[in-house]
Amino acid sequence: MSERSRPVIMAGEKVFLSHVLAEDAPLLAQWFADLEFTALLGQQGRSSTLEQEQQWIRENATTRDDQCTFAIMLRDSERLIGTCSLSNINLLHGIAELGIAIGDKTAWGQGYGREAVRLLARYGFRYLNLYNIRLWVHSFNERAYRAYLRAGFREAGRLSGATLFDGRRYDRILMELVREEG
């Protein structure tokens, strides 16, 4: 592909991060109407409409002082497979919270999410001068937990039984990645 239709913010081997566009709303609405997908994000039983996704894009798709959100695109096809963000950014203390959602189920288990997490962390450390990036994952989402470990995150704490899912209690796990010094 000689010319991309979206700007490349950060690029890896398999994916690149770009802007979330208004035209992405129908696909996001499709993903967030999938109850299996939203359950993995800890939003069991919730779904969203096209109008809600359009509003989300208007409110979140531009970089702000406290948040930056990106589209996760496959490099070879420029297909949108998910979104990722740094939120609750505190530039004074150099901390932020990472979130990621791979909505395209055909992209699950391919290493795309792990690469997107690494790219987003590199963006935070390099361009926002962050020191610590944290995230929360539910213990029932083992695939995400393993991906975060492979991306360099370590477990920093647990809230025992903080998530009720399918009639059972699960831990909410805090993970962090700290910028290497030197």
Could you characterize what this model shows?
The chain is an alpha+beta fold. It has a domain of 121 residues: 3-Layer(aba) Sandwich (Aminopeptidase), CATH 3.40.630. It contains 5 helices and 8 strands; from the N terminus they run ββαααβββαβαββ. An 8-stranded mixed β-sheet has the order 1-2-3-4-5-6-8-7, with helices on one face. A hairpin with a 2-residue loop joins strand 7 and strand 8. Helix 1 packs across helix 3. The longest helix has 16 residues. The protein is globular. The N and C termini lie far apart (37 Å). The mean pLDDT is 91.
Give the structural class. alpha+beta
Q: How many beta strands in the DSSP annotation?
A: 8
Order of helices and strands: EEHHHEEEHEHEE
The CATH top-level class label of the domain at 10-130? Alpha Beta
* Number of helical elements: 5
Report on the biggest sheet: 8 strands, mixed
State the helical fraction. Answer: 25-40%
Poorly predicted regions? none
**CATH-defined fold name of the domain at 10-130:** Aminopeptidase
Strand order of the largest sheet: 1-2-3-4-5-6-8-7
Q: Ends: how far apart?
A: 37 Å
Average the pLDDT over all residues and give the rounded result.
91
The CATH architecture of the domain at 10-130 = 3-Layer(aba) Sandwich
Could you give me the name of the CATH homologous superfamily of the domain at 10-130? Gcn5-related N-acetyltransferase (GNAT)
Shape: globular
Alpha carbon gyration radius: 16 Å
Strand content: 25-35%
